[in-house]
Write a structure and sequence with these properties.
The protein is of the alpha/beta class and 381 residues long. It is 33% helix and 22% strand. Strands 14-13-12-11-7-10-9-8-15 form a nine-stranded mixed beta sheet, with helices on one face. The chain has a six-stranded parallel beta sheet with strand order 3-2-1-4-5-6, with helices on both faces. The two termini are 39 Å apart. Bound molecules: nicotinamide-adenine-dinucleotide (NAD). The site of nicotinamide-adenine-dinucleotide has 24 residues, from α1.
Protein backbone atom coordinates (compact mmCIF):
# COMPACT_ATOMS: atom_id res chain seq x y z
CA UNK A 1 0.00 0.00 0.00
CA UNK A 2 1.31 3.40 -0.94
CA UNK A 3 0.52 6.35 1.31
CA UNK A 4 -1.80 9.12 0.16
CA UNK A 5 -0.36 11.65 -0.61
CA UNK A 6 2.76 9.91 -1.90
CA UNK A 7 5.72 11.00 0.24
CA UNK A 8 8.68 12.22 -1.79
CA UNK A 9 12.32 12.53 -0.71
CA UNK A 10 14.49 14.72 -2.92
CA UNK A 11 18.09 13.73 -3.68
CA UNK A 12 19.78 16.88 -5.01
CA UNK A 13 18.36 20.35 -4.34
CA UNK A 14 19.54 22.17 -7.47
CA UNK A 15 18.10 23.53 -10.69
CA UNK A 16 16.18 20.39 -11.73
CA UNK A 17 14.55 20.21 -8.29
CA UNK A 18 13.51 23.87 -8.46
CA UNK A 19 11.73 23.14 -11.76
CA UNK A 20 9.77 20.31 -10.11
CA UNK A 21 8.82 22.26 -6.96
CA UNK A 22 5.49 23.55 -8.39
CA UNK A 23 4.40 19.99 -9.27
CA UNK A 24 5.46 18.63 -5.89
CA UNK A 25 3.81 21.43 -3.90
CA UNK A 26 0.65 22.28 -5.90
CA UNK A 27 -0.43 18.74 -6.75
CA UNK A 28 -2.26 17.26 -3.74
CA UNK A 29 -1.39 13.68 -4.75
CA UNK A 30 2.20 14.10 -3.52
CA UNK A 31 4.08 15.84 -0.71
CA UNK A 32 7.71 16.64 -0.04
CA UNK A 33 8.83 15.01 3.22
CA UNK A 34 12.65 15.09 3.08
CA UNK A 35 15.63 16.19 1.02
CA UNK A 36 19.39 15.80 0.79
CA UNK A 37 22.20 17.89 -0.65
CA UNK A 38 25.87 18.52 0.16
CA UNK A 39 25.29 22.34 -0.03
CA UNK A 40 24.35 23.73 3.41
CA UNK A 41 22.60 26.79 1.92
CA UNK A 42 20.31 24.53 -0.13
CA UNK A 43 19.50 22.46 2.97
CA UNK A 44 18.63 25.53 5.07
CA UNK A 45 16.34 26.94 2.39
CA UNK A 46 14.70 23.54 1.90
CA UNK A 47 13.96 23.18 5.64
CA UNK A 48 12.55 26.71 5.73
CA UNK A 49 10.48 26.31 2.55
CA UNK A 50 8.99 22.88 3.23
CA UNK A 51 9.30 22.31 6.98
CA UNK A 52 10.95 18.99 6.08
CA UNK A 53 14.27 17.48 7.12
CA UNK A 54 17.24 18.02 4.76
CA UNK A 55 20.05 15.49 5.17
CA UNK A 56 23.70 15.98 4.28
CA UNK A 57 23.98 12.46 2.91
CA UNK A 58 22.05 10.40 0.38
CA UNK A 59 22.29 7.32 2.61
CA UNK A 60 20.23 9.02 5.34
CA UNK A 61 17.63 10.10 2.78
CA UNK A 62 17.13 6.70 1.19
CA UNK A 63 16.87 5.08 4.64
CA UNK A 64 14.29 7.62 5.92
CA UNK A 65 11.26 5.60 6.99
CA UNK A 66 8.64 8.12 5.84
CA UNK A 67 9.84 8.34 2.21
CA UNK A 68 7.86 6.38 -0.44
CA UNK A 69 9.69 7.64 -3.52
CA UNK A 70 13.12 9.17 -4.00
CA UNK A 71 13.36 11.81 -6.74
CA UNK A 72 16.98 11.87 -7.91
CA UNK A 73 18.01 15.30 -9.18
CA UNK A 74 21.72 15.08 -8.38
CA UNK A 75 24.25 15.36 -11.24
CA UNK A 76 24.17 12.45 -13.74
CA UNK A 77 27.21 10.65 -12.33
CA UNK A 78 25.32 9.99 -9.06
CA UNK A 79 22.04 8.74 -10.59
CA UNK A 80 22.89 5.03 -10.69
CA UNK A 81 24.34 4.75 -7.17
CA UNK A 82 21.48 6.67 -5.54
CA UNK A 83 18.84 4.79 -7.54
CA UNK A 84 20.32 1.42 -6.59
CA UNK A 85 20.57 2.41 -2.91
CA UNK A 86 16.99 3.72 -2.90
CA UNK A 87 15.65 0.56 -4.55
CA UNK A 88 17.58 -1.62 -2.09
CA UNK A 89 15.94 0.36 0.73
CA UNK A 90 12.51 -0.39 -0.79
CA UNK A 91 11.91 3.12 -2.15
CA UNK A 92 10.36 3.81 -5.55
CA UNK A 93 12.55 5.93 -7.81
CA UNK A 94 11.97 8.92 -10.08
CA UNK A 95 15.33 9.78 -11.65
CA UNK A 96 16.14 12.77 -13.82
CA UNK A 97 17.26 12.51 -17.42
CA UNK A 98 19.63 11.27 -18.66
CA UNK A 99 18.94 8.06 -16.77
CA UNK A 100 22.70 7.48 -16.30
CA UNK A 101 26.00 7.75 -18.14
CA UNK A 102 26.27 4.19 -19.50
CA UNK A 103 24.05 1.28 -20.46
CA UNK A 104 25.73 -0.80 -17.74
CA UNK A 105 24.55 1.72 -15.14
CA UNK A 106 21.03 1.57 -16.62
CA UNK A 107 21.06 -2.23 -16.39
CA UNK A 108 22.14 -2.04 -12.74
CA UNK A 109 19.31 0.41 -11.97
CA UNK A 110 16.70 -1.74 -13.73
CA UNK A 111 17.94 -4.84 -11.86
CA UNK A 112 17.98 -2.99 -8.51
CA UNK A 113 14.36 -1.87 -9.00
CA UNK A 114 13.30 -5.40 -9.93
CA UNK A 115 15.13 -6.94 -6.95
CA UNK A 116 13.80 -4.29 -4.58
CA UNK A 117 10.23 -4.78 -5.83
CA UNK A 118 9.93 -1.05 -6.58
CA UNK A 119 9.07 1.07 -9.62
CA UNK A 120 11.59 3.08 -11.59
CA UNK A 121 10.46 6.10 -13.64
CA UNK A 122 12.82 8.36 -15.58
CA UNK A 123 11.89 12.03 -15.87
CA UNK A 124 11.06 14.76 -16.19
CA UNK A 125 11.83 14.78 -19.90
CA UNK A 126 9.87 16.90 -22.35
CA UNK A 127 8.22 13.77 -23.73
CA UNK A 128 5.99 14.10 -20.61
CA UNK A 129 4.67 17.43 -21.98
CA UNK A 130 0.88 17.37 -22.47
CA UNK A 131 1.00 18.44 -26.17
CA UNK A 132 3.41 15.58 -26.98
CA UNK A 133 1.19 13.11 -25.11
CA UNK A 134 -1.89 14.49 -26.92
CA UNK A 135 -0.15 14.07 -30.31
CA UNK A 136 0.66 10.48 -29.36
CA UNK A 137 -2.97 9.93 -28.35
CA UNK A 138 -4.15 11.28 -31.74
CA UNK A 139 -1.78 8.88 -33.50
CA UNK A 140 -3.02 5.96 -31.39
CA UNK A 141 -6.60 6.99 -32.22
CA UNK A 142 -5.80 6.22 -35.87
CA UNK A 143 -7.04 9.44 -37.55
CA UNK A 144 -3.68 10.64 -38.96
CA UNK A 145 -2.54 7.14 -39.92
CA UNK A 146 0.90 5.66 -39.37
CA UNK A 147 3.89 7.87 -38.58
CA UNK A 148 6.21 8.28 -41.56
CA UNK A 149 8.63 11.03 -40.54
CA UNK A 150 9.41 13.24 -37.54
CA UNK A 151 11.30 16.54 -37.74
CA UNK A 152 12.57 18.04 -34.49
CA UNK A 153 14.59 21.22 -34.20
CA UNK A 154 15.70 23.27 -31.22
CA UNK A 155 17.98 26.34 -31.02
CA UNK A 156 18.73 27.52 -27.46
CA UNK A 157 21.37 29.16 -25.26
CA UNK A 158 22.12 25.88 -23.47
CA UNK A 159 25.90 26.04 -23.75
CA UNK A 160 26.14 29.56 -22.30
CA UNK A 161 24.23 29.03 -19.07
CA UNK A 162 26.58 28.85 -16.04
CA UNK A 163 27.84 25.27 -15.82
CA UNK A 164 29.58 22.84 -13.49
CA UNK A 165 32.94 21.70 -14.99
CA UNK A 166 31.59 18.23 -15.81
CA UNK A 167 28.73 19.77 -17.81
CA UNK A 168 31.33 20.96 -20.31
CA UNK A 169 33.13 17.60 -20.49
CA UNK A 170 31.52 14.94 -22.68
CA UNK A 171 33.43 12.11 -20.96
CA UNK A 172 31.62 13.06 -17.73
CA UNK A 173 28.17 13.51 -19.27
CA UNK A 174 28.55 17.08 -20.50
CA UNK A 175 27.38 18.65 -23.73
CA UNK A 176 24.09 18.82 -25.55
CA UNK A 177 23.88 15.14 -26.53
CA UNK A 178 23.78 13.82 -22.95
CA UNK A 179 21.76 16.76 -21.70
CA UNK A 180 19.44 17.87 -24.48
CA UNK A 181 19.19 14.94 -26.90
CA UNK A 182 17.92 13.13 -23.79
CA UNK A 183 14.77 15.26 -24.23
CA UNK A 184 14.61 15.40 -28.02
CA UNK A 185 15.26 11.70 -28.63
CA UNK A 186 12.70 10.83 -25.96
CA UNK A 187 10.05 12.99 -27.69
CA UNK A 188 10.80 11.62 -31.15
CA UNK A 189 10.81 8.00 -29.97
CA UNK A 190 7.53 8.47 -28.14
CA UNK A 191 5.86 10.00 -31.20
CA UNK A 192 7.31 7.51 -33.70
CA UNK A 193 6.12 4.68 -31.46
CA UNK A 194 8.59 2.06 -32.64
CA UNK A 195 12.14 0.91 -32.07
CA UNK A 196 15.14 2.89 -33.35
CA UNK A 197 17.10 0.61 -35.69
CA UNK A 198 19.78 2.94 -37.11
CA UNK A 199 21.51 6.18 -36.11
CA UNK A 200 23.61 8.51 -38.27
CA UNK A 201 24.82 11.72 -36.64
CA UNK A 202 27.28 14.58 -36.74
CA UNK A 203 28.10 16.80 -33.80
CA UNK A 204 29.59 20.28 -33.51
CA UNK A 205 31.99 21.46 -30.83
CA UNK A 206 32.75 24.95 -32.01
CA UNK A 207 33.78 26.98 -28.95
CA UNK A 208 37.23 26.01 -27.61
CA UNK A 209 36.36 27.72 -24.30
CA UNK A 210 33.42 25.30 -23.89
CA UNK A 211 34.94 22.15 -25.37
CA UNK A 212 31.96 19.81 -25.56
CA UNK A 213 29.20 19.24 -28.11
CA UNK A 214 27.09 22.36 -28.52
CA UNK A 215 25.23 21.13 -31.60
CA UNK A 216 24.21 17.97 -33.40
CA UNK A 217 22.28 16.88 -36.42
CA UNK A 218 21.10 13.31 -36.65
CA UNK A 219 18.90 10.89 -38.50
CA UNK A 220 17.11 8.00 -36.87
CA UNK A 221 15.52 5.08 -38.69
CA UNK A 222 12.69 3.19 -36.99
CA UNK A 223 11.40 -0.34 -37.26
CA UNK A 224 8.60 -0.28 -39.85
CA UNK A 225 10.14 2.41 -42.08
CA UNK A 226 9.55 5.72 -40.26
CA UNK A 227 12.52 8.07 -39.96
CA UNK A 228 13.38 11.25 -38.06
CA UNK A 229 15.71 14.22 -38.28
CA UNK A 230 16.85 15.89 -35.06
CA UNK A 231 18.71 19.20 -35.08
CA UNK A 232 19.97 21.01 -32.00
CA UNK A 233 22.14 24.06 -31.39
CA UNK A 234 22.88 25.47 -27.96
CA UNK A 235 25.12 28.28 -29.24
CA UNK A 236 22.85 31.13 -28.09
CA UNK A 237 22.24 32.86 -31.38
CA UNK A 238 19.01 31.98 -33.23
CA UNK A 239 16.30 31.01 -30.72
CA UNK A 240 13.67 28.60 -32.05
CA UNK A 241 11.17 29.76 -29.40
CA UNK A 242 10.46 32.42 -32.03
CA UNK A 243 8.45 29.65 -33.78
CA UNK A 244 6.41 29.13 -30.59
CA UNK A 245 5.27 32.77 -30.33
CA UNK A 246 8.08 33.53 -27.86
CA UNK A 247 6.85 31.07 -25.28
CA UNK A 248 9.91 29.55 -23.64
CA UNK A 249 10.73 25.92 -22.85
CA UNK A 250 9.09 26.24 -19.42
CA UNK A 251 5.81 27.58 -20.81
CA UNK A 252 6.39 31.21 -19.75
CA UNK A 253 6.52 34.28 -22.01
CA UNK A 254 10.02 35.14 -23.19
CA UNK A 255 11.36 38.60 -24.04
CA UNK A 256 12.95 38.58 -27.52
CA UNK A 257 14.64 41.88 -26.63
CA UNK A 258 16.83 40.01 -24.12
CA UNK A 259 18.98 38.91 -27.07
CA UNK A 260 22.54 37.92 -26.18
CA UNK A 261 21.90 37.93 -22.43
CA UNK A 262 23.26 34.44 -21.72
CA UNK A 263 26.69 35.30 -23.17
CA UNK A 264 26.79 38.72 -21.49
CA UNK A 265 25.88 37.32 -18.07
CA UNK A 266 28.57 34.64 -18.23
CA UNK A 267 31.48 36.46 -16.65
CA UNK A 268 33.67 35.84 -13.61
CA UNK A 269 33.97 32.53 -11.82
CA UNK A 270 31.39 30.32 -13.49
CA UNK A 271 30.89 27.85 -10.65
CA UNK A 272 30.26 30.68 -8.16
CA UNK A 273 27.80 32.19 -10.62
CA UNK A 274 25.98 28.87 -10.96
CA UNK A 275 25.96 28.31 -7.20
CA UNK A 276 24.68 31.83 -6.49
CA UNK A 277 21.80 31.35 -8.93
CA UNK A 278 20.99 27.85 -7.65
CA UNK A 279 18.41 26.89 -5.03
CA UNK A 280 19.55 28.40 -1.70
CA UNK A 281 21.95 30.83 -3.42
CA UNK A 282 21.82 34.64 -3.07
CA UNK A 283 20.67 35.18 -6.67
CA UNK A 284 18.13 32.29 -6.80
CA UNK A 285 14.87 33.03 -8.60
CA UNK A 286 12.05 30.46 -8.68
CA UNK A 287 10.76 29.51 -12.16
CA UNK A 288 8.50 32.13 -13.78
CA UNK A 289 4.73 31.53 -13.77
CA UNK A 290 3.79 29.19 -16.57
CA UNK A 291 0.76 30.09 -18.69
CA UNK A 292 1.25 27.59 -21.49
CA UNK A 293 2.54 24.04 -21.76
CA UNK A 294 6.23 23.33 -21.66
CA UNK A 295 7.89 22.39 -24.94
CA UNK A 296 11.23 21.55 -26.49
CA UNK A 297 11.63 23.39 -29.78
CA UNK A 298 9.70 22.55 -32.93
CA UNK A 299 8.40 19.07 -33.58
CA UNK A 300 6.43 18.03 -36.68
CA UNK A 301 5.14 14.50 -37.13
CA UNK A 302 4.25 13.55 -40.71
CA UNK A 303 1.73 10.74 -40.80
CA UNK A 304 -0.08 9.00 -43.67
CA UNK A 305 -3.01 11.44 -43.67
CA UNK A 306 -1.88 14.46 -41.63
CA UNK A 307 1.01 16.37 -40.11
CA UNK A 308 0.83 16.93 -36.33
CA UNK A 309 2.61 19.75 -34.54
CA UNK A 310 2.65 19.86 -30.72
CA UNK A 311 2.58 23.50 -29.56
CA UNK A 312 2.36 25.26 -26.17
CA UNK A 313 -1.45 25.60 -26.50
CA UNK A 314 -2.37 22.31 -28.12
CA UNK A 315 -1.65 20.25 -31.21
CA UNK A 316 -2.02 21.59 -34.74
CA UNK A 317 -3.40 18.99 -37.14
CA UNK A 318 -2.71 19.68 -40.82
CA UNK A 319 -4.95 17.40 -42.94
CA UNK A 320 -5.35 17.33 -46.73
CA UNK A 321 -7.90 20.15 -46.92
CA UNK A 322 -8.23 21.49 -43.40
CA UNK A 323 -6.05 22.48 -40.52
CA UNK A 324 -7.20 22.74 -36.92
CA UNK A 325 -5.88 23.24 -33.42
CA UNK A 326 -6.68 20.50 -30.93
CA UNK A 327 -6.63 22.89 -27.97
CA UNK A 328 -5.33 21.95 -24.55
CA UNK A 329 -6.41 23.82 -21.44
CA UNK A 330 -3.60 25.82 -19.82
CA UNK A 331 -1.69 23.68 -17.31
CA UNK A 332 -3.08 23.99 -13.78
CA UNK A 333 0.12 22.61 -12.30
CA UNK A 334 3.37 22.64 -14.30
CA UNK A 335 4.73 19.14 -14.93
CA UNK A 336 1.69 17.47 -13.36
CA UNK A 337 2.12 14.89 -16.16
CA UNK A 338 5.00 13.50 -14.09
CA UNK A 339 2.73 13.13 -11.06
CA UNK A 340 0.10 11.50 -13.32
CA UNK A 341 2.62 8.85 -14.35
CA UNK A 342 3.80 8.31 -10.76
CA UNK A 343 0.19 7.74 -9.66
CA UNK A 344 -0.70 5.52 -12.63
CA UNK A 345 2.33 3.41 -11.78
CA UNK A 346 2.33 3.34 -7.97
CA UNK A 347 -1.44 3.47 -7.33
CA UNK A 348 -3.07 1.97 -10.44
CA UNK A 349 -0.27 -0.57 -10.95
CA UNK A 350 0.19 0.21 -14.65
CA UNK A 351 3.68 -0.09 -16.15
CA UNK A 352 5.24 3.38 -16.53
CA UNK A 353 5.56 4.88 -20.02
CA UNK A 354 8.97 6.23 -19.00
CA UNK A 355 10.30 3.18 -17.16
CA UNK A 356 13.91 2.00 -16.96
CA UNK A 357 13.91 -0.01 -20.20
CA UNK A 358 12.36 2.92 -22.07
CA UNK A 359 14.92 5.44 -20.79
CA UNK A 360 17.77 3.00 -21.42
CA UNK A 361 16.60 3.04 -25.05
CA UNK A 362 16.90 6.83 -25.15
CA UNK A 363 20.40 6.74 -23.64
CA UNK A 364 21.37 4.05 -26.17
CA UNK A 365 20.41 6.44 -29.00
CA UNK A 366 22.29 9.36 -27.35
CA UNK A 367 25.43 7.24 -27.00
CA UNK A 368 25.02 6.16 -30.64
CA UNK A 369 24.79 9.83 -31.72
CA UNK A 370 28.17 10.49 -30.08
CA UNK A 371 29.73 7.35 -31.53
CA UNK A 372 28.29 7.79 -35.03
CA UNK A 373 29.69 11.34 -35.12
CA UNK A 374 33.08 10.17 -33.86
CA UNK A 375 33.33 7.28 -36.31
CA UNK A 376 31.61 9.12 -39.20
CA UNK A 377 29.31 6.20 -39.97
CA UNK A 378 25.80 4.90 -39.54
CA UNK A 379 25.27 2.57 -36.60
CA UNK A 380 22.77 -0.28 -36.36
CA UNK A 381 21.30 -0.63 -32.86
N1 LIG B 1 14.21 17.69 -16.69
C1 LIG B 1 14.75 18.89 -16.69
O1 LIG B 1 14.14 19.86 -17.16
C2 LIG B 1 16.11 19.09 -16.07
C3 LIG B 1 16.60 20.39 -15.91
C4 LIG B 1 17.84 20.55 -15.29
C5 LIG B 1 18.58 19.44 -14.93
N2 LIG B 1 18.08 18.19 -15.13
C6 LIG B 1 18.84 17.01 -14.69
O2 LIG B 1 18.90 17.03 -13.26
C7 LIG B 1 20.17 16.60 -12.81
C8 LIG B 1 20.80 17.70 -11.96
O3 LIG B 1 21.07 18.81 -12.80
P1 LIG B 1 20.93 20.30 -12.25
O4 LIG B 1 20.98 21.19 -13.43
O5 LIG B 1 19.79 20.40 -11.30
O6 LIG B 1 22.30 20.44 -11.47
P2 LIG B 1 22.59 21.41 -10.26
O7 LIG B 1 24.06 21.49 -10.16
O8 LIG B 1 21.80 22.66 -10.43
O9 LIG B 1 22.00 20.65 -9.01
C9 LIG B 1 22.51 19.44 -8.56
C10 LIG B 1 22.36 19.43 -7.06
O10 LIG B 1 22.85 18.17 -6.60
C11 LIG B 1 23.71 18.42 -5.51
N3 LIG B 1 24.67 17.33 -5.42
C12 LIG B 1 25.96 17.32 -5.78
N4 LIG B 1 26.51 16.14 -5.51
C13 LIG B 1 25.57 15.40 -4.96
C14 LIG B 1 25.54 14.09 -4.48
N5 LIG B 1 26.59 13.29 -4.49
N6 LIG B 1 24.40 13.65 -4.01
C15 LIG B 1 23.32 14.46 -3.99
N7 LIG B 1 23.28 15.71 -4.43
C16 LIG B 1 24.40 16.16 -4.92
C17 LIG B 1 24.35 19.75 -5.77
O11 LIG B 1 24.83 20.35 -4.57
C18 LIG B 1 23.18 20.51 -6.39
O12 LIG B 1 22.40 21.14 -5.40
C19 LIG B 1 20.98 16.27 -14.05
O13 LIG B 1 20.96 14.89 -14.26
C20 LIG B 1 20.27 17.02 -15.16
O14 LIG B 1 20.38 16.38 -16.41
C21 LIG B 1 16.85 18.01 -15.68
Amino acid sequence: MISNPIRIGIAGLGRAFSLMVPAFTLDPRVEIVAGADPRPEARSKFEADFGAKAFDSMEKLVEAADVDLVYIAAPHQFHAAIACAAAAAGKHVLVEKPMALSLEECDAMIAAARNGGVRLIVGHSHSFDAPVLRARQLIEGGEPGRVRMVSALNYTDFLYRPRRPEELDTARGGGVVFNQAAHQVDIVRLLAGSRVTHVRALTGSWDPARPTEGAYSCQLAFDGGAFATLVYSGYARFDSDEFAGWIGEMGAKKDPAAYGLARTALKGDELSLKTARNYGGAAFKPPAKQDAHQHFGEVIVSCERADLRPLPHGVMVYGDREQRLEPLPAPRVPRSEVIDEICETLIDGRPPRHGGEWARGTLEVCLAILRSARERRELAL
